[in-house]
Amino acid sequence: MCGAATPVTAGHPAGVFTWNPPTALVVALSDLLDRGRLQS
User: Domain of life, per the record (predicted)?
Assistant: First the structure.
């Protein structure tokens, strides 16, 4: 968890991990969870 008081080192907030997935991956996973399948 992080909030306004979370320490920042080298531009990254302290925490377990940071991950910035590609937009296309987020959209594909959203479609998969919504429809139960990927669009072709």
Answer: Bacteria
The pLDDT tens digits of the residues spanning 1-33 come to 678 888 888 888 888 777 889 999 999 999 899
Beta strands in 1-40 (DSSP E): 8-9, 12-13
Residue 9 phi/psi, 5° resolution?
-125, 125
Q: Which residue has the tokens 């996973």?
A: 29
Q: How far apart are CA 8 and CA 31, in angstroms?
A: 34
CA dihedral in degrees (6, 1, 22, 25; nearest 10)?
-170
